Amino acid sequence: MVFSNFRGRRAARITLGASAAAIAFSVTTAAFAQDSGTPAADAQDSGPGEIVVTGFRAALATSANIKRNNTMIVDSVSSEDIGKLPDVSIADSLARIPGVTAQRLEGRDQRLSIRGLGPDFSTTLLNGREQVTVGDNRGVEYDQYPSEFFKNVNVYKSADASLIAAGIAGTVDLRMLRPLAQSQRTFVVAARGQMNEQKKLNPDGTRYGYRASATYVDKFAGDTLGVAVGVSAQNTPTQIERYAAWGFPNESAAGNNLFLGGAKPYVQSNLLKRYGGVATIEWQPSDNFHSTFDGLYSHFEETQRLRGIEFPIAPQWGSGAVIQPGYQVQNGLVTSATLSNVVAVQRNDYNKRKAENISLGWNNDFKLSDSIHFIVDASWSHATRTDFLLETYSGTGYNSSGAKDTIKISQNANGTYSIVPTLDYSNTSVIKLTDPRGWGYNGTQAVVQAGFLNRPDFEDDLKSLRASFNGEFSGSIVKSWEIGGNFSRREKTSRYTSYFLCPPGGGTNCTVASGTPTNFAVPADAVLGEQVALAYLGVPKMLTYDPLKVYSQLRSVFDNRPDSLVRDNVVTEKVYTGYAKVNIDGTVGGKALKGTLGLQVVHTDQGSSGAIAALQNGVVTTSPVQDSTKYTNFLPSATFSLELMDAFYVKMGAAQTMVRPRLDQERITQAVSIDLSKLGLGSLPQNSPFSSNGGNFRLRPYQSTNIDISVEKYLRGGGYLALTGFYKHLTDFVDPNNSTLYDFSALLSALPPAAAAIVRAQNAQFGLVRVPDNTGRGDILGVEATASVPFSTFTQALDGFGVFASGTYVDSRVVYGSNATQAVTIPGQSKWIATGTAYYEKNGFQARATYRWRDSFLAELAGLSANPEFRTGKSEGVLDAQIGYEFQAGPLKGLAILAQAKNLTDAPFITTEAGDPRLVREYQRYGRDYYLGITYKF
Q1: What is the pLDDT of residues 736-767, one digit of tens each?
Q2: What span, in angstroms and rounded, lies between the C-alpha atoms of 875 and 864?
Q3: Distance, CA of 329 to CA of 679 (rounded, Å)
Q4: Is residue 25 part of a domain?
Q5: Element (H, E) at 689
Q6: Residue 691: inside a domain, yes or no?
Q7: Percent of the chain with pLDDT over 90
Q8: What is the C-alpha separation between 274 and 236, in angstroms, rounded?
Q9: What DSSP designation does 89 have?
Q10: Integer distance in angstroms from the first to the last C-alpha of the chain?
């Protein structure tokens, strides 16, 4: 997603000696020292000799030095030049880091997992400051950050007392450049075009996109004032062939074999538009004062057009279809069948998401004496997001009253099913806007649901103020100290509104009983001239219209079902953090030793507000509710780095860390259900007519005791070899399906007298309240191996060639308190991860290819009404490549040309069911993307 210029006008010179290593680290060290107290990396001697590296090679060397000089276990991605991370997007770059994987959503790498733990278990910082997100919960969607704006992206895998808001999986810290650290004025402009290999799948979609950016960096007033400004804009298209199966019941009409329950094939065309800007002002009028102000703004807008047909298939699940004789079975799964009496639901959907993110930070460093500094850092991060999720339905008649179809299903080699219909689904004389299956229901009555609209919106706000003192000791291996405190207040507001859409005309509230029309002709001006084909699954064409024009003529009725109303909530967290640490730097037994010893004390005041809602006798009642809780956590940490031999290090980290639960789990809201059909079933809680479902404002953070050990050998020329082992003991792990016994006696008065008497007689007023709770525990054990090897290490004849490769193994066992014998799968965990990059870069020419592979994992997807769902994602391998050239002399000096290709393996995203790879639930094919761009630096 980022236009990458080939490399800078000048070679980045990294001298493998003490003074030149300090120069190479000037940007990184200054950023650590000036921003929010994130641990600094001190320059070290890299041995004799000197080598000049540029572009991607320089980025790898810089990342190696960040890793080498930090006492924590850290891996980094560094920019090749101003405004140029090495890959298409931030998430692509991070996915090359050992132990880090990315889940693709909408064709883009978005959700990151670190060491087997998904995005809910890590935190993201911007210049050392915690960030809000435009997502539903805490996990950051990296699309909101234009990658041109960052100098380094560091992933801390161990903890330090001064690292505020560290996660238990890791902490991602996005670092902007510092203008005073730049050697000269720089202006860079870049433009890139994009094309997807597939022709546009929807007539109102596109396969072409672009990206443009500009960055300006300069210094003034005798190099005491620095300014960096960047702007970026992009239009990124994605074409997706989508297939979703409902599941696979044992179908009695087919010999009790597994049978496709239903399927929903789509073609989807996305267009992501984003523009943003950054500004950094850095002022250092004297050695006694240093001030840095950062600002980032990003506007994000994505439009999705989806068209497809839902086919309810299995008679066992009420489809009404009839399986014809002659179906075929392989190993207990029906792979081919013909069905008659099929009633399908045709879909023309439109989704639009708008999001804005703004982050401001101001850091001031006051030198109080020769050895003591006072640092004050203030920041504000704010994000808003609004979704418009429109579904429109069409078919042959209301509630299966129209013409029926005969279809043939047959399983393909990739696990999907081809569905070949008989009906012409593009014929407007047959297809009407209606509720083809009669699925519409408002909780008490049938409604003519010819469409549905979800309009969730989120607002996330975080303010933080941090202050610290640091100083030095003399004549001791304990070199320095730091004490500080941080206060933050985060408030996330989630609002969900939804509407039933029905044909215009008579009736009230879209109900059938009130006389609402059961169908509506598709407006002629809404029909598009080009009809969509689902040819990849055998459907030749379907009725294709503009869903927004149809929406403008349908009636909207507010959805006030309890489950919909109680999703509105506000979660507030006030966090007070105090910390103290000492830094060790000296010699022990003739060996160089560095490290830290520290303690964090974190006091939390968290609360939530919302409503409790219930439905009884057709009446929805809501009651506002608000409450809070307080707790304190103590988080000790220690890190050590011992240089046993020249450029050979052993590092160890031990720490207690925590990460807060999902925000939707901290909500206080509850949806109470009264099911009179359970009357007389007995006194067991699951047989009670009363139940409730919601969040838990008293949830505590996940806790983890971490031990990390790393052995690292650094090579001449900027490379290294590393082997890292890690262990995490997890406690207070959140069980999202936890249920608690509750006495619903207060609701007996809401029942009819006879029903209440039955409940009392059977003592059935004790029902289950489903709330998440900290009942889980477990362990994670893993190993990471990394090799960053420039071939010039072996011989100068191979100068310019090199590889960067890593492999990770992660094993885990997590159990919930309700079932300590059954281990659960952690979302985002792959047991095996591997990545490899081979590159050549010399004399202005650059070529490289990166292959990323991950084992199967539990994937998170957006389900019904935008609720999260989890399913097993199949293993996948993705190959990216690029080639480029930069003119290094003559009139074109500073001009670079770059061609890139993404997903050359055309790897689909696939999820399966029940551990059986034949039972494919989702299949998404994105195709290959090609990019061509130019950059000019002057």
Answers
A1: 889 999 998 888 887 888 989 999 999 999 99
A2: 25
A3: 42
A4: yes
A5: none
A6: no
A7: 70
A8: 9
A9: S
A10: 23
How many whole angstroms separate alpha carbon 408 and alpha carbon 418? 8
Q: Is residue 818 part of a domain?
A: yes
Residue keyed to tokens 């915690």: 130
- Dump strand ranges (E) for 525-568: 532-534, 539-542, 555-558
Banded model confidence at residue 868, pLDDT cuts 50, 70, 90: low
Number of helices (H), then strands (E), belonging to the chain: the values are 7, 55
CA distance 18 to 45: 4
Q: Dig out the tokens for 402 from the structure.
A: 């129209």
- Tokens linked to 649: 């290090």
Tokens 């250092």, located at residue: 284
DSSP 223-270: TTEEEEEEEEEEEEEEEEEEEEB----EEGGGTTEE---EE--EEEEE
* Average pLDDT along the chain: 89
Using alpha carbons, select from 355, 373, 357, 354 the residue that is nearest to residue 365.
373
The set of residues, in sequence order, having a beta carbon less than 8 Å from that of 111 and lying 6+ positions away, is: 102, 103, 105, 118, 119, 139, 141, 828, 860
CA-to-CA distance for 870 and 857, rounded, in angstroms? 10
pLDDT at 112: 83
Q: Which of 387, 423, 381 is nearest to 297 (CA)?
A: 381
Distance in angstroms (rounded) separating the CA atoms of residues 546 and 551? 9
CATH (domain of 378): 2.40.170.20
Residue range of the domain that includes 290: 12-661+699-737+772-937
Residues 263 and 248: their CA atoms lie apart, in Å, by 10
Separation between Cα atoms, residue 809 and residue 937, nearest integer Å: 42
Sequence-ordered alpha helix ranges (H) in 511-606: 547-551, 562-565
Asked if the structure places residue 424 within a domain, the reply is yes
Percent helix, percent strand, percent coil in the chain, to nearest 5: 10, 55, 30
Predicted confidence (pLDDT) at residue 4 exceeds the cutoff of 80: no
Distant-in-sequence, close-in-space partners of 438: CB < 8 Å, separation ≥ 6: 398, 399, 400, 446
d(CA 679, CA 756): 9
pLDDT tens per residue across span 872-911: 888 999 999 999 999 989 999 999 999 999 999 999 999 9
Answer yes or no: is pLDDT of 122 > 50: yes
Q: Provide mean pLDDT across the span 112-123.
A: 87
Q: Which residues contact 257 (CB under 8 A, 6 or more apart)?
A: 250, 251, 329, 332, 333, 334
Tokens encoding 2 = 């980022």
Our measurement of the distance from residue 833's CA atom to the centroid of its chain's CA atoms, rounded to an integer in Å, reads 18
CA-to-CA distance for 210 and 193, rounded, in angstroms? 4
Alpha carbon dihedral 116, 120, 126, 130, in 10-degree steps, equals -130
User: In 3D, which of 355, 516, 352 has the Cα closest to residue 440?
Assistant: 516
Dist CA 579 CA 541 (whole Å): 64
Tell whether the torsion through CA atoms of 40, 232, 77 and 128 is positive or negative: positive
Evaluate whether 706 touches 779 at the Cβ level (below 8 Å).
no
The pair of three-digit structure tokens given for residue 15, joined into one six-digit string = 């001298």
Q: For 324-379, how does the pLDDT look when each residue is reduced to its tens digit (9 = 90+)?
A: 999 999 999 999 999 999 999 999 999 999 999 999 999 999 999 999 999 999 99
How many residues in total does the chain contain? 938
pLDDT of residue 829: 85
Task: Report CA-CA distances (Å) from 215 to 150, 180, 229.
Answer: 11, 15, 6
Q: Are 310 and 292 in contact (CB under 8 A)?
A: no
- Report how many domains make up the chain: 1
Between β-strands 619-645 and 648-659, what pairing exists: parallel, antiparallel or unpaired? antiparallel
Residue 466 has pLDDT above 50, yes or no: yes
H/E element holding 752?
none
pLDDT score for 172: 92
* Rounded mean pLDDT, 414-431: 94
Residue type at position 119? P
* pTM of the complete model: 0.88
